């Protein structure tokens, strides 16, 4: 493991997804899934999210669209919250989901709208 990339990834991951969620994921990891936590933190967040080519807001837009296409509601919840943390508005998220309805299918977009509403409601209660 590259300790420098891991630490960089940990900082970015905490900033986007929230320290409580990220720290919990790492603290709850065991021998079986810790290698995945290390891989995600170092490679996804340190190596790719840490690149200078796109800002975090743009990366969030891309992630929302791809996660909608893949129909991964658990990950979508995390990344809707992350998109808000990265400066997207609810209206911009809505536009991403409308765009995905055309290219990924209406059912996938409807699920993403439903999931995002749950996240927005939870965030309003915080």
Automatic annotation (TrEMBL):
InterPro entries with a match to the protein in the record: 4CMD/NDH-1_regulator, AhpD-like, CMD-like, Decarb_PcaC
Keywords associated with the record: Lyase
Segments crossing the lipid bilayer: none
Record Gene3D superfamilies: AhpD-like (1.20.1290.10)
Uppermost EC category: lyase
ATP-binding keyword on record: no
EC numbers, comma separated: 4.1.1.44
UniProt-listed Pfam families: CMD
NCBIfam families: decarb_PcaC
Record PANTHER family: 4-CARBOXYMUCONOLACTONE DECARBOXYLASE FAMILY PROTEIN (PTHR33570), CARBOXYMUCONOLACTONE DECARBOXYLASE-LIKE DOMAIN-CONTAINING PROTEIN (PTHR33570:SF2)
Name of protein: 4-carboxymuconolactone decarboxylase
């Amino acid at each position: 493991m590259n300790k420098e990339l891991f630490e960089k990834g940990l900082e970015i991951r905490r900033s986007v997804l929230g320290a409580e969620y990220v720290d919990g994921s790492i603290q709850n990891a065991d021998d079986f899934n810790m290698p995945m936590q290390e891989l995600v933190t170092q490679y996804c967040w340190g190596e790719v999210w840490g690149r200078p080519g796109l800002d975090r807001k743009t990366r969030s837009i891309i992630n929302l669209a791809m996660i909608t296409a893949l129909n991964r509601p658990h990950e979508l919840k995390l990344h809707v919250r992350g998109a808000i943390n990265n400066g997207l508005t609810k209206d911009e998220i809505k536009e991403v989901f409308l765009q995905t309805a055309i290219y990924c299918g209406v059912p996938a977009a409807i699920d993403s709208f439903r999931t995002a509403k749950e996240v927005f409601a939870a965030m309003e209660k915080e």
